[in-house]
Amino acid sequence: MEIIWILIIVGVILVLMGLRIVNQYERGVVLTLGKYTSTREPGLTYILPIFQRMIKVDLRIATIDIPQQEVITKDNVPAGINAVVYFQVEKAEYAILQIQDYALAVSQYAQAALRDVIGSVELDTLLAERDKIADEIKKIVDVATNNWGVNVTAIKIQDIELPADMKRVMAKQAESERERRAVIIRAQGELKASEDLRAAAQNLSQAQGGLSLRTLKTIEAINPDPSKTVIFALPVEVMEGIKSLGKVAGPK
C-alpha cells in the first residue's frame, strides 16, 4: 500500500515537473534527448521530464543599440556614428538551432554592415540621405538574419559626430550659402523694381505733360517748407511739358 502511494506521489511530481506555460508572445522549442522535435504554441503544454527540455523564445520586437563607431567616409572624413537595430524572431526553431546567440549576432553583423556602407559614401551623402543609407544597411543584414529566423524590421542612424574643424568648415559653408541666396533675392527684387520703374516711365512719357507733372511733384516733396527756396535747373523739355500742362488745364 505504501508503494502505491509512493508511486502516485512520484507520478504527480513528474506531471507537475513537465507542465509548462508558453506566453502569447513566446514560442517553446522542444528538444527530445537533444534533438529538435516540435515548437509549442502559447498556452499550457507538457514535456517529458528528464527526456525533454523546452527553450522559450520571445517573438516581440527587440532593440539593440550599436555603440558609436569610428568610420572613415569615402572622402576621408572621420565620423562617429551610432545606430539602433529593431529586429523580431519569426522562426523560433531557427533562432535556437542555427545561431548560438542571435541577438549578439545581429548586433555584430549590423556594426560590420554599417562600416562597409558608410565607408563607401561621401560625407554630404551621409548627412543628406541618412534614411536611405540605413535602408541599405538593413538589406545587407537581412540577407544573413533570414537564415537565422530573424527579421530586421528597421535600422535607424541616431547621431553623426564630426570633428570640430569639420563643423567649423560646414558652418562657414552654410553661411556663404545663405549670403549667396540673399544676394540673389536682392538682385531679383532690384530687377523687378527696375521693370516697374521702366513701365511707369513709359506710361508717363506717353501721357501729355505726365513726365513734367511727375517732376513738379518730386520737387514739392523735396522742399516741403515754403519758407525756403530751392532753385532747379530744368531742361527745356520739362519747361515745354509745363507749358503744355498749362494749355491743357486752361480754358478751351
Description of the structure:
This protein has 252 residues and is an alpha+beta fold. The chain is 52% helix and 25% strand. It is built from eight helices and eight strands; from the N terminus they run αβββββββααααβααα. Strand 2 (26-32) and strand 3 form a beta hairpin. The chain is elongated, with a radius of gyration of 42 Å.
List the helices and strands and how they pair.
Blueprint: H1 2-18, E1 19-22, E2 26-32, E3 35-40, E4 43-46, E5 52-58, E6 62-72, E7 78-89, H2 92-97, H3 102-118, H4 123-128, H5 130-145, E8 150-161, H6 164-206, H7 210-222, H8 236-249
Antiparallel strand pairs: 1-4, 2-3, 2-5, 6-7, 7-8
Helix pairs in contact: 3-5, 7-8
| Helix/strand/pairing category | alpha+beta
Give, in spatial order, the strands making up the sheet with the most strands. Answer: 3-2-5
The global form is elongated
Q: What is the number of E strands?
A: 8
Proper CATH architecture of the largest domain: 2-Layer Sandwich
Terminal residue distance: 147 Å
Q: Largest beta sheet, briefly?
A: 3 strands, antiparallel
Low-confidence stretches: none
What is the highest CATH level, the class of the largest domain? Alpha Beta
What oligomeric state do these chains adopt?
Answer: single chain
The value of Rg in angstroms is 42 Å
Strand content: 25-35%
Count of domain modules: 4
Number of helices: 8
- Which superfamily, in CATH terms, is the homologous superfamily of the largest domain? Band 7 domain
Give the helices and strands as they follow along the chain: HEEEEEEEHHHHEHHH
Mean pLDDT: 81
CATH topology type of the largest domain: Tetrahydropterin Synthase, Chain A
Helix content: 40-55%
